[in-house]
Structures are given as structure tokens and as C-alpha cells.
Fold:
Amino acid sequence: MSLALPMWSGPSRVGGGTQAGPVRADDQGVVDVAAVLRWLNDDVDPLAHARQRIVRNLSALAAAMLAVFSLASVWDGYVGPAGLGALLTLALGGNAWAIQRHRAPVVPFWVLACALIAGAMAALALRGLPALFWACPVLFIICFTLPRRLAKLLAVVLIVGLGLGAGQQAGWSMGLRVMLALTLILGMLVSVFECVADMQAALVAQADTDPLTGALNRRQLQQHLESALALRAGSAGQHAVLAIDIDHFKLINDRHGHDIGDEVLRRLVATVNGRSRRGDQLFRVGGEEFLLLLGEVGSQDALATAEVLRQHLAQADLLPDQSVTVSIGVAMPGDCRTAQDWIRRADRALYAAKRGGRDRVVMAQEGREADEAQEELA
Structure:
């Protein structure tokens, strides 16, 4: 399904990067509606760790509030608003019940948000300016239950609708004041969410990144290796692991001090990252040991890449007036069933390189018997 819609091709902030907006389907500005909906819903959630609890509690409180409103409307003789309030009460209460039991919401929250917006506008039309007290609760429900892009869009619809309604009843000066006040509230909510998102991104970066070198740490290693194994099973491309260890690193620390040793580690990471392809990922797995995950590469190319990297590191200025060499073990996934099997295979190749005199590259042998034989040599 496609529809001519205004194009938005600017970047949208997702985590620490950018993401394109809705994709142009043709030169006439026709956009796939499904793509637009995906873009509106595809957003990093800064409250993901607490989202279920927030939505459950907010739904329960809103259901209780609307139940009281429905009873009051019946008392005042407003049957229509009372019926709408009763339906929203049931929907919100059902969603709270479903979320409490770890099930999908009974009614999608974007549907509820649209119904709440319609209800707030209807209340303003029927009961006048006093009904504007619904604006803030509805605005909060929208912002706390929907993805940020979709929430902003529906919040603007609410603000403009209530502003126009207030302007028709009490003059456009009143309508403008209503829109400005609600826009200020929306701006405060957006600012809070942006700050939370920035803090969340910083915490994730601290948890996933080695603070000394900037390389990824072991926390991310397992997940990436398992993903690579899954891609192998799906024939989506081979991966290779390079286990890299600095030769005689203890002597560097003993002779030059730990500050110089730390600088060697930082320069090594910078050098490897500078020589890596886009998509390759470097992890620090020990004091002076690193693991480089190469994507979509055959065994011979992986071996050649490791050899070029070894030579480049030996020539790099990692330590003033002294060459620093590395030993590298190369392992293809082969018949490895788990990430740990793959890491052990790369480690055995690395140990073989160490025992063979260091400053060299060794390709791991594949197969269980080959692994056992290489382990005996290591």
C-alpha cells in the first residue's frame, strides 16, 4: 500500500547514530505507508528497562480515573461521554491486566491514544473550557506509552486540536495560549526523555566498551560470536576469529612502566581499527589479548589478513625506539557448536604461535581430532 505523503529524509537520532526517514518509493514522492509506520515506531526506547511497569501502572491509574469520570458524566446526563469513558476504562484496564501477565495489550496503545485525543476534543466541545483539564493526563499517557516519534506526532495533533477548539469557544487569543502552554509541557517531556536516552546510551557504552582502549569488552563478545554462528548456519557468510596477543608484554611493563604499557595497548587498538574493514569488530578479552571478528571472509583471506596485520603492527610506532610484535591465532567456525568452542579453537592456534617462536600467524585446524592434536602441541 502506498500513498503520496510529504517526504522526510533527514536523519533521526537512534542511540548514538542516525537513521533515514521514510523511503521514497518513486520520483513522484510516493511513500510506502508501511514504511512510514515502521519509521514512526522504530526508535530507541530510553525507558525500555522499566517500560512494562510504567505502562501497566499508568494504564491502571488512567482506567480508575476514567471510571470516576464515566460515573460523573452519567450523573450529569452526558451519556455519550460516559459511554466513551467506559469503553476507554475497559480497554486501559484490560491492557493493565494483560501486561501484568506478560501478554500483549488487549488494544494497541496507539489506538487508545487516538481515542483519548478524540475524547478530549469531544469533552471540550460539549463541556467547554473546563474540559481542558484532560489535556495534561492525555499528553502524559501519549508520551509514556508510545514510541517517541509517534508520541510527538499524536501530541501535536492533540495540542493543535485543543487549541483550535478553545479558540472557537473563547477567541483565538485563548486558543493560542492553550497551544503555547501544552507545547511547553510537551517540550519539557521531550527534554526529559532526551536526557534519559543520552544517559542510557552512555551507560550502555560504559558497560560494553573497555575504558582503557575503547575496544569492545567480553560482555559483547558472546553475543556477536553467537550471531556469527547463526549466520553460518543460515549460509549468510563465513566469519573468522583472530586471537591477537602482544609478545613479551610483561617485559614492556617491567622496563617502561604500566603507563607506557597502557599506551601500547591504546596504540595497538587504534592501529587494528585503522586497518580493519567496516563491520569487523575488535574485543579486548584479557590484559594484552584481543580478539578480532572478521565478517564474510574465507579461511585463506582470513589467514592473509592476519599476516598483513602482524607485519603492520611490527612496523607500527607502538613503542618508541622498539618494535612490538604480536602472535595471532586464526580460527574459522567450522563445526564449532558454541561461541566458547570457537574461542578455544582460536586460543589453541594462538598458543601454537607462541610456542612456535612468537611473531607469527597460525591457522587453527578444524575438527575435534585436529583441535585435540593442536591442544597437545600448544
Observations:
- The chain has a mean pLDDT of 82.
